[in-house]
Amino acid sequence: MxxxxxxxxxxxxxxxxxxTAPETSFSIPITxxxxxxxxxxLQSSDPNAIPGAAAFRTMFYPTLKLGSHWFxxxxxxxxxxxxxxYDAYDTDRQIYTDVIQAFVGYSxxxxxxxxxxxxxxxxxxxxxxxxxxxxxxxxxxxQPLSYVTQLPLQADDLPRGARDLQGQSYxxxxxxxxxxxxTLYGLAGIExxxxxxRVDARLQITNGSPAAPQGFxxxxxxxxxxxxxxYTIRQGFRVGISAFRGPYLNSSVTAALPPGxxxxxxxxxxxxxDAQWARGHWTTTGEWHRFQFDLPGFVTSPAVAxxxxxxxxxxxxxxxxxGRAGYLNTGSVRDxxxxxxxxxxxxLHSYEFGGGAYLSRSVLVKASYAFLRVDGTSGPRNDVFGxxxxxxxxxxxxALK
Length: 401
Known about the structure:
mainly beta; Porin; 16-stranded antiparallel beta barrel; 3-stranded antiparallel beta sheet; about 5% helix
């Protein structure tokens, strides 16, 4: 995998050297955000902790264009904890730098046909939300459950049966963090995107699963494919599908697998549909996902169904309101001993309502209240009220000769 990617990088470098200079340029747009939240989630591990926190996030988007076809792009995040709503369950208060995307690409266009080939660190091609990582692209503050919920499953630890699996809970465990169905961070790989008229499609080959990503600084674990596509029914109305399949378990569990099997015999499978519709002052989007994580010793392996719907209404040129409702349900499991559990974790339901106001063309302030309901619990302990101030700087660019 890495040899293939390195070969692509070498070809790209040779192409860049041969491109003509007139269209050469470099830019680095920046989005700077500050946020604050009030929630009892912050008291999950320490009841005496203050139920309020503030944090910052800065996104850098260096973009290099060399000629009419070749380019390089990156999306680099620097943030403190807890910035996102799901960070509030974590006691970590450090500052992190994450490379969400960093790739070289080649674009080609002929009439209504266009193609882009990319190699490097890539956002997952599954679903429609992973590319909305800029705070200006998310009308609210929280993220859909499929992308942020840590399931009671680990890539480096195998449950012994249905009872063992049911005994775990959402979030971190002593061994490692629970996997998320789809990462919002980058995967090392290559991708091809095509568009022809009303049809678009994408194919991505990565090192690791969207549920268990691997970066360039990590050894090659396994090759994973993700594919998607969509059809624009009319202007502003598009429907799409996406899927992935491949191993997700860590090689550290190989010794615990049944004789004659490998981690490739126990893949993760995801399938999703999405839709976007915009007309006048209204914008809506939604997704539905189903994931299955095959495990040794299970006749019916763990599966998850999740979905959300989001609506945005522009009230005035400077002010909008928005809402999002979502759910995540875990399916029944059955192990080889015949022990069955109706679900391996409580159902989740999330509701977020808020709005935003543009103080200027480049400065946005947002506020929202998020309700998270976990079956078997009651009260506002998991609710969050948050505010964000987002400033965009898009004018940093230079023409190169």
